[in-house]
Amino acid sequence: MIMKQCDKCGTNNTENAKYCLNCGFELPINTVIESQEKETIPTKKKKKLNQAKTILGAVVGVLIMFGIQQFFFMSQAPTIDKAMMQLASEINKSCPIMIDAETRLDNSVALPNHLFVYNYTLINVEAGTIDTLQIKSKLEPIIVNFIKTNPQMKQVRDEKVTISYYYKDKNAKYLFQIPVTPQQYE
Q1: Alpha carbons 180 and 84: distance in angstroms, whole number
Q2: Per-chain mean pLDDT for the chain
């Protein structure tokens, strides 16, 4: 409660009093203003302190949420990506390797978002001399069936990995690509 102090006798009076209760002296208006200013300065400091605490709390909250997201949601994705990178590294140790008389596996690559790529070269083929659509249409069902049925591909199926088979000609020119998505082998 704001009190007005009488300048003549020093008695404290209520804030809406015009005259001192003790001596009857007219109370000045500026006394109220001074006492209100004294009260608003600490109030402003408290408001600024509260705003700073609120901002600090929001920042800490965002950091905690980011940490939880990184721990729970991102910790699973690198596991399969890491396993695919190790697999690609193991395969690449023996590459290039002849698969059959016409096909050479040059390397494999593990990419983000559960994508694994095999890069092949058809060593006796030159771009423009063959019907790539016909070869692709014959190879695709064989590859999809292999992924669906081969026990060694179980982890690929479980992790919903997309496998892409990329083919080039003997001069390293692009021929065609066969991507096999989880929807195709489920």
Answers
A1: 16
A2: 81
Q: Which structure tokens are listed for 151?
A: 């026990």
CB of 13 closer than 8 Å to CB of 5: yes
- C-alpha–C-alpha distance, residues 54 and 65, integer Å: 16
Residue 175, CA distances (Å) to 106, 125, 130, 179 in order:
15, 9, 9, 14
Segment 30-62, tens digit of pLDDT: 544 444 444 455 666 777 666 666 666 666 655
- What's the pLDDT tens digit per position in 153-186? 888 899 999 999 999 999 999 999 999 999 998 8
Residue 92's closest CA among 102, 107, 81?
107
> Residue 33's pLDDT is what?
42
CATH number of 77-185: 1.20.1070.10, 3.60.40.10, 3.60.15.10, 3.30.300.250? Answer: 3.30.300.250
- Count of CB atoms situated within 10 Å of the CB of 123: 14
Alpha helices in the chain (DSSP H): 29-72, 77-93, 132-149, 154-158, 182-185
Q: Is the pLDDT of residue 72 over 80?
A: no
Domain boundaries, the chain: 3-72, 77-185
Chain-centre distance of CA 63, in angstroms?
A: 13
